[in-house]
Design goal:
Blueprint: E1 2-8, E2 11-13, E3 37-43, H1 47-62, H2 73-76
Antiparallel strand pairs: 1-2, 1-3
Length: 77
């Protein structure tokens, strides 16, 4: 079992079309630190174990990535 998802500018998606196209190939003139794509993959021999791990780790993982304002989720509160 392999779980795969992306974090695009602080938002979760499973669709790579979210970050494809010409808009993602232009220079980041403003230096926005929240303009990124991160691919996250987890694997396990058990589907249930992979789902449980994802549920436990997702919020923690996302907190390390900046959102639109350039701040991590854990720093917005």
């Amino acid at each position: 079992m392999v779980l795969n998802f992306y974090i695009v500018n602080g938002l979760l998606t499973i669709d790579e079309r979210t970050f494809s196209g010409i808009g993602w190939r232009t220079p980041n003139i403003q230096g926005n630190p929240a303009r990124y794509v991160a691919q996250i993959q987890m694997s396990s021999v058990s589907e249930n174990a992979a789902k449980m791990a994802a549920a436990q780790m997702a919020d923690i993982l996302i907190s390390y990535f900046p959102v639109g304002s350039g701040e991590g989720k854990d720093r917005e509160q």
